[in-house]
Amino acid sequence: MAKEMNLGKGKTIEVSRTNDDAWYAAAIIRSMQKNGRISVEFQTLFSGDDRSKPLKEIVDLSHVRPHPPPDDFDLAFESGDEVDAFCNGGWKPGKISGVLENSSFLVILSNTHEAKAFRRLELRVHRDWIGGRWISAREQRKLEMDFGSGTPVEVRSDEEGFVGAWFAAKIVRAIDKNMFTVEYQNLRTDDESQLLRETVYSQNIRPAPPDILESKSFRFLEEVDAWYNDGWWVGVISKVVKNSSYFVYFRDTEEEIEFKHSDLRLHQDWIGAKWVRASQGLKLCD
Questions:
Q1: From which residue to which does any coiled coil extend (predicted)?
Q2: Structural domain total, the chain
């Protein structure tokens, strides 16, 4: 069952910052329910060089999530495992690329592709806050999805500038249980002569989402997918305008773009081998 996020004063949460894929621990100072923002005090970021003065900021709720559950430090990581690495005061996503001596691991950081060594205590299982619950990468891989040739799917991009977007495709063939060749529906090769084919990991593939009853109108702050640059990008309705048009805010780029109603769909997440509608899981408390 999806849980509401308690945003009461003093609650410990995690906050993402502009142009930064890390998550930082912070405490809520004040909730501002009317404008969808909260005032926070960071636990590991400071004002200038004075470490006695924690950094305080007002942040949008779209940059906030609960503090993840404690990690099991007896869990042994393996090459290929998705983790968060504690670096420069924040938890950055990455992937284990090698096991070193003295309980250390070589990690490729997702954003910079930089390889760094981290001790086990500086790592945690990577989890995403989706639909009001925590989902680990290992849990996602345990879900057995039988993708036969021709199966319609959506593929998540890891390419810089397109990270997080989902692109319609079909399965061409399975290379092994963790890797597939796909052919995109709307992306073409550089010379435009044919549809683009790529080999992708199963963790970046999900079934094509089902058609759901189209909403006659979208609401302010409703989570949607927007059709943009041949893919679906998750965003939030930031303004409802006339003639069935909407402004959508994209957290990762802090862009706000206007879309027609026909270029939007209700956002859904693939969780536990089921499609889950976007949760209204923010509980604002004074």
A1: none
A2: 4
List Cβ neighbours of 112 (8 Å cut-off, separation of 6 or more).
none
Residue 67 DSSP one-character state: P
Q: Each residue of 116-148: pLDDT tens digit? A: 999 999 999 998 887 677 877 766 555 445 678
Residues 47 and 86 reside in one and the same domain: no
Question: What's 122's domain CATH number?
Answer: 2.30.30
Q: Which of 90-104, 149-163, 195-209, 211-225 has the lowest mean pLDDT?
A: 211-225
Q: Evaluate whether 54 touches 41 at the Cβ level (below 8 Å).
A: yes
Give burial (CB, 10 Å; 0-12/13-18/19+) of 214: exposed
Give dist(CA 285, CA 214) in Å, integer: 32
Per the DSSP assignment, residues forming a β-bridge with 149 are none
Instruction: Give the separation between CA 77 and CA 96, rounded to whole angstroms.
Output: 8
71 part of a folded domain = no
151 and 202: one domain? yes
Residue 142 φ/ψ, nearest 5 degrees = -70, -20
- Give the domain extent around 279: 223-284
Looking up residue 20, the CATH number of its domain turns out to be 2.30.30.140
